[in-house]
Amino acid sequence: MTGPLLKVENLKVVLPTRRAQLTAVDDVTFSLAAGEVLGLVGESGAGKSLTGAAIIGLLEPPLFIEDGRIYLEGERIDKLSDETLRRIRGKRIGSIFQDPLTSLNPLYTVGRQLVQTITTHIDISRAEAKARAVQLLKDVGIPAAKERIDHHPHQFSGGMRQRVVIALALCANPRLIIADEPTTALDVSIQAQIIGLLKRLCRENNTAVLLITHDMGVIAETADRVAVMYAGRLVEVGPVRDVIMHPYHPYTMGLMNSIPSISKNVEWLTQIDGAMPRLNDIPAGCSFNPRCPMVFDRCRKQVPVLLEIEPSHSVACWLHDKEAVHV
Amino acid sequence: MSETPLVRVVGLTRHFDVSPPLLNRVLERKPRIFLKAVDGVDFDICQGETFALVGESGCGKTTVARMLVGLEQPTHGLIEFGGHNITRLKTRAQLRPYRRRMQMIFQDPFASLNPRWRVMDIVAEPIRAYGIIKGRKRVREEVYRLLKQVGLGENDSDNYPHEFSGGQRQRVAIARALSTRPEFVVCDEPTSALDVSVQAQILNVMKRLQQEMGLSYLLITHDLAVVHHIATRVGVMYLGRLCEMAASESVFNTPRHPYTKLLLETLPDITMNRRDRAPMAGEVPNPMNPPPGCVFHPRCPLAADVCTREIPRQLMVDDAMVACHAVAGGWDSGK
Predict the structure, then answer these.
(1) Element (DSSP H or E) covering residue B34
(2) Cβ–Cβ of A44/B195 closer than 8 Å?
(3) CB A211 within 8 Å of CB A218
(4) Is the pLDDT reported for residue A36 higher than 80?
(5) What's the gap in Å between the CA of A325 and the closest CA on chain B?
(6) Nearest CA distance, A227 vs chain B (angstrom)
(7) Closest approach of B56 to chain A, Cα-based (Å)
(8) Using the 8-state DSSP alphabet, how is residue B187 labeled?
(9) Of A327, A252, A321, A254, whose CA–CA distance to A296 is shortest?
(10) In whole angstroms, what is the distance from residue A162 CA to residue A98 CA?
């Protein structure tokens, strides 16, 4: 394989305010291979959605990328003009957002939206585009696709709408899909259908997915690798099984134990006291140090860097810095 | 559990009139349409227990909760609280003694707290309204005690809701609910708006308070993992009806209704067993036009002819209530 599909290096997203520049995403580095599903998890405000938005160039001003580089198939895409980026979005990077109702235009039939997207990115006739649109709707499991293509978004249920959004994202056979909380707005029984669909389609087309979610269950079911974010930084990256079964970072450990599960019986859930710091109030050193049960002196002074503990499993925590002498 | 239950609900029904306007009905001969949000639900809640109602959106679980605390009038049915029939109580004076004893915690702590009031006033208001404690200083001390009970500090009482995180706000909402010293608290999706690490904090607080004060909870949620963690008894709702009701272990270990089985089957879990799950087919039907017979039959893998015609009766299997033709006819085990 020749290089990763997507490479993000030292990404830093900044929110300028009157008083100070707040860093929403700080020094985020990761890569994604073709056909791989990378889960980006974190609690609300951790910066996971902003990371996704930064990659497709959809950061809402005044947010901007202050530092870092983003490469798609070796080509740098973070400094492109809006016009060039527009041609990448949809064609090479598809996106799926949380709320399917707001990602579809309520005034147009889903067929018109699909055909428009297809003809924008692929050079085919309208009739061919329409045939492709019907095929896409069939692929995402919409019954009676031929008739449904002339329906408006409000005539679809929530789960069906999300299927349409997935069809839209797949229109031009993108190499990468950024899925931001694709199942959060859906009921559990529908959620499983959508996860299964996304997995199947991406396996068939060898599409890579950056799956952004707060739901560890979804990650466990879907992702190959997982990256855990906390207060704008990556704290742990590794194969999904390792991170879930043997987390190294105290935050990931706390997070995993605080999730109630139907397969474990505990009287009390482990809780991480406190809450994630606000952007204007990120503590010095490791941003998790005020909540960390294993905090020591170095954590309050020095920002931890990602250290590779096992092959392809990295943790940003001074506890695991083998070279340093522990106090 | 021989003594009278704290809450008893019999045949609770709530229909919403969603008919077209009168003129359209007369001119265009359009019929009256009723949405059966809740259609004949029975359950008891005993003192000190946590009864959870689970179901997908639109199954009527929130409407049940709203009827219990008197925010919604039932169309039919009976609600008893502490042995008294409170179904048809209308005036404030009639409801007042019961309202003090039952409180509610809502899903969104951003919407349920007045943004212009300090936490002190938010928590003190029910105390003053019900005259539980008299005297400014003693009320203030009571608020401090309540805040401490939910894990907040005395200093927090001078702040406004926007100064708190979601989890802290939910703690304020719990403190307010406890201020009238209720016996029964209805919790409508209390942790759905919160992050998991904060959800764990709130669930622990709820559980501790229950043990300390002998509270009874009605927990409304769609999250089965939360139910498994905190509930003692579970009722599974689908399209306005209870399809299964049993002790929590029974529902999770030996689910009987096909809907419950599928719900448990489709739940994403972090145990990393990566079983290839068979997701439940189809979607929740439109409640305005529910399928005839058993409302679950279009999605049910065991559906037979009788399911499309007859509404299944509730029947007791061991210690569980199940409403399913397949279970009644015994053809559910051969799956």
Answers:
(1) strand B34-45
(2) yes
(3) yes
(4) yes
(5) 31
(6) 15
(7) 6
(8) E
(9) A327
(10) 9
Distances in Å between the Cα of A172 and the Cα atoms of A213, B122, B238, B281 are 24, 54, 39, 28
* CA distances to A157, B40, B58, B288, B291 from B17, in Å: 22, 17, 16, 10, 19
Question: For A275, which of B165, B269, B271 is closest by C-beta distance?
Answer: B165
Picking from B142, B144, B148, B135, the residue whose alpha carbon sits closest to that of residue B181 is B142
- Is B206 in contact with B194 (CB distance < 8 Å)? no
Question: Which chain B residues are within 8 Å of A192, Cβ to Cβ?
Answer: 266-268, 277, 279-280
Secondary structure (3-state) at A295: coil
Whole-number average pLDDT of chain A: 89
Q: Is the pLDDT of residue B2 over 70?
A: no
Q: Which of A101, A186, A187 to mutate to test the interface with B (most CBs of B within 10 A)?
A: A187
Q: Does residue B275 register a pLDDT over 70?
A: no
pLDDT at B335: 45
pTM for the model stands at 0.85
Query: Which amino acid is present at B323?
Result: A
Percent of chain A with pLDDT over 70: 98
Residue A187 to residue B167, Cβ atoms within 8 A: no
State the Cα–Cα distance between residues A305 and A180, nearest whole angstrom. Answer: 26
Determine whether the interchain pair A217/B269 forms a contact, defined as Cβ–Cβ distance below 8 Å. yes
CB < 8 Å & 24+ apart, contacts of A112-117: A113/A168, A114/A149, A114/A164, A114/A167, A114/A168, A114/A171, A117/A90, A117/A168, A117/A171, A117/A172
Q: Is the ipTM of this complex over 0.85?
A: no
